[in-house]
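Q: Got a minute? One more chain.
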Amino acid sequence: MTDWYTYALAAFFLMGIQNFLYKVSAERGCHTGWITFFFMATVACLSSIMWLIQREPIANFGLLLFLSFLNSLSFLVATVTHIESLKYLPATTVYSVTRLNLVIVTVFSVFFLKDQLSLRQIAGILCAIGAIPILTQGLDKGKTAISQGRQGFIYLATCLFASALASISSKYAAMYVSKIAFLALVYTIGTLASAGLGNRFRTTSVKSDHRGTFLLGLVIGILNFAGYLAFLKALSFGPLSLVASIVSMHFVVAIVLSILIYRERLTAPRALGFMLTILSIALIGF
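A: Always. Here it is, folded:
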C-alpha cells in the first residue's frame, strides 16, 4: 500500500464525517454563513500556528498567493452552496450529485496532467462514477419538493464546478508550493470572505444558538484541517485522478451516518451504490 493511498483513505473518512456535520447544520437550522466562518477561522488558526512552528520556507510567493486565492474562493462557494442545497434536497441526492466533480477532475488530470492509469484503476474510477447515479435514488417528486428542488439544484450545479476547481488548484498547490502556508492563506482568505456573508442565506428556520453554531463550526474546522492536510499529502505522491476518486467518495460516510442518526431510508439501490464505492476504492488502491 503506497503512502498516497493511506493519506487518501484518511482524507476519505475525515471529510466524510465533516460532510455529515453539514447535514447536522442543516437539520438544526444553523446559520450557514456563521458555520462557514467559524470552521474556516479554525483551520486558518491551526494552519498558521503550524506554519510558525515549522517555519516552512516559501519558494514562490506569487504562485502561492494566486493558488490560495483561487482555491479559497472556489472552496467557499462550494461549501456554502453545498450546505444550502441540503436545506432543499435529500442528503443522498446532495452528497451524490456533488461528487460528479470526479468526472471533471479525471478528464482534466488525464489530458492536462498526463496521469498514467492501469486498467484496474480505470475500472475503479468507472465504479466510482457508476455509484453516483445509483445513490441519487429517492428524490421526492411532490409539488413542494419540485419547487424547492429547482432552487436546490441551482446550488448543486454551482457546487459541482466550484468543487472541481478547488480540487484542481489543490493539486497544483501540493506540487509547487508550501502546503502549510497554502492552508493558512486559503483559510484566512476564506474566513475574511465568509465574514462578508453577513445575513445572507438566513431563513426563517435559522436558530440563534450561537454557542452551538460555534462549537459545530469548530469541530468541522478541526476535521477539515486534518482531512485537507491528508488530501494535500496524497496529492503530493499520487495522481490527481486516483486521489480524487477515493476522496470524492467520502459522501458515503455522510450518507451512512445520515441513515443511522436521522433514519434516512436505506434502499436497495443505495446499498448497491455503497458496494460499488467500496469496490472502486479497492480497485484503485490494491
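A: The CA atoms of residues 79 and 165 lie 13 Å apart.
Q: Perfect, thanks.
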